[in-house]
Write a structure and sequence with these properties.
single chain; 84 residues; mainly alpha; two-stranded parallel ribbon; 4 helices; 2 strands
Length: 84
């Protein structure tokens, strides 16, 4: 599904591309969430299908292996800082 995400979340900056795989919004701005929802409710089926595929592609790299590699990299950086 296309994703709606708060611009106060770092993941939204990294993962959501407006109009491609979802929409970003400021939850504390008047009409922000409503506008994002309006986008979804007014999608044509073909547009929704394209956005669903774009959403799947945008997170395809986020596998358990990727997360483990990031975790190991963070530990190594922390250890290198302790040794310095």
């Amino acid at each position: 599904m296309p994703v709606l995400g708060s611009l106060y979340s770092q993941a939204v900056d990294e993962l959501i591309e407006d109009g491609v795989n979802g929409w970003r919004f400021y939850p504390d701005h008047d009409g922000g969430a409503r506008s994002a929802l309006d986008h979804i409710f007014h999608l044509k089926e073909t547009e929704a299908d394209a956005m669903r595929e774009a959403a799947r592609q945008s997170i395809r790299h986020l596998t358990p292996e990727f997360a483990a590699q990031c975790f190991v990299r963070a530990i190594r950086l922390a250890l290198d800082g302790v040794r310095a």
